Structures are given as structure tokens and as C-alpha cells.
Amino acid sequence: MNHIYIFLTILLTVYGQLVIKWQVNLAGSLPLELKDKVWFVVHLLMNPWIISGFASAFLAAIFWIGAMSNFPISYAYPFMSLAFVIVLILSNVFFKEPITFGKSIGMSFIILGIILGSKG
């Protein structure tokens, strides 16, 4: 049951990253002029989806506190790298970002590291 804290931390982290990327893609490129940049960022910060991404980061931190109260950090923290793997896969699904051979090898090393790290 305590692993649910780690799982929810990862899930909320991934959600926040993907939703912010989605909304930034919809908003377009960062303008060149400083005044336009400020407006661009303020507009994004008022976006309910962006707010939900920040809220998910806050909730992830709360669940991380739960994880830290139940596991040594040396055990729990390597699982956080699963967020990299999940974001990479879902960025391919939702944003059509390529998963290259090098990224696949990197994901394999991350997963292998988690397996080895969680055994020790």
C-alpha cells in the first residue's frame, strides 16, 4: 500500500509535464519582444490546464512526503526516474515526438537501474 505514494507522485508529475507541454504547444512560440513575452507567460499562467499542471506538482510533493515517511530515499528516489520513461512514451503518443534508438537504450538503462536499485 505504501508504494501507492510513489506511484501517485510519478503519475501526478507526468500529468503536469504533459498538460503543460500540450498547452504551451497550443499557445505557440515564445514571442520576441519582452512585453509580448510577459503577456504570453501571464496568459499561460491563467490557463486552467496550466494551473492544473502546477496543482498536480503540488499534490505530487504531498504524496512524496508520504513516500518519504515510509521508505528510505535511496529506495524511493530511483522510482522517480520512471517519470522520464513514461513522459517519453506518452510524448510519442500525444505529440508524435520520435523515440530514437538512443532514447530506447536510455529508457532500458533507466528501467534496469530501477530494478537493480530496488533489489539492494
Using brief descriptors, characterize the structure shown:
120 residues, mainly alpha, 6 helices, Membrane protein, EmrE-like, Small_drug/metabolite_transptr
Q: Could you characterize the architecture of this molecule?
A:
The protein has six helices and no strands. It has 120 residues and is mainly α. The protein has one domain (3-119).
Secondary-structure blueprint:
Elements: H1 3-27, H2 34-45, H3 48-68, H4 73-76, H5 82-95, H6 101-119
Helix pairs in contact: 1-3, 1-5, 5-6
Mean pLDDT: 95
Shape: globular
Taking Cα atoms only, what radius of gyration do you get, to the nearest Å? Answer: 17 Å
Largest sheet: none
Helix/strand-derived category reads: mainly alpha
Transmembrane segments: 40-63, 75-95, 101-118
Organism: Nostoc sphaeroides CCNUC1
Protein name: Membrane protein
GO cellular component, one term: plasma membrane
